[in-house]
Amino acid sequence: MKYSYILFLFISLPIYCQNTIQLEEGLKSPKASLEDVSWIAGHWQGEAFGGITEEIWSPPLGNSMMFVFKLLVNGKVQFYEIGHIQEQEETLLLQLKHFSGNLKGWETKDETIDFKLVKIEENKVYFEGFTMEKVTTNEINIYVLIEHEDGTKKEEKFNYKKL
């Protein structure tokens, strides 16, 4: 019985995390530039968490692409994110910070949530636990591995259309 439960976990885990991956221990992020991910730039809107999600990504400029994210539920802002993808040491790093609807920060003053680059494909970029996929020039998917308060992790999909 114990072994069948463990087998179930190994078989079912990839089903729930099909689009997010981690950098293998001891490996460095691959070489990359912002031009490799410039297709992310734009004003995007979708639905998730029972509300409307919005992301605005700037084109590459000054070794970074900045973004803002907003979640609205029942017409009220639940939270914001602000962040960027930066070119650092010939690779890319995605960093972000969270803010409640009244702009009170979730992370400490100097703390950021960092996602190292794992790999890039023609229409997909994989950061650790955060994947962006170009479906068409007017549609993208973002997959985020979210850890919940009880310690469980679940991959969430955000589908966006360009405004």
Textual characterization of the structure:
The chain has one helix at 2-16; strands at 42-48, 51-57, 64-73, 76-88, 91-100, 113-121, 124-127, 130-136, 139-147, 153-162. By secondary structure, it is mostly beta strands. Strands 1-2-3-4-5-6-7-8-9-10 form a ten-stranded antiparallel barrel. A hairpin with a 6-residue loop joins strand 2 and strand 3. It is globular, with a radius of gyration of 17 Å. The model is unreliable at 1-15 (pLDDT under 50).
How large is the share of residues in beta strands? over 45%
Largest sheet: 10 strands, antiparallel, barrel
The counted number of beta strands is 10
Flag low-confidence runs: 1-15
CATH architecture label? Beta Barrel
Spell out the helices and strands N to C.
HEEEEEEEEEE
In which order are the strands of the major sheet placed?
1-2-3-4-5-6-7-8-9-10
Query: Structural class per helix/strand content?
Result: mainly beta
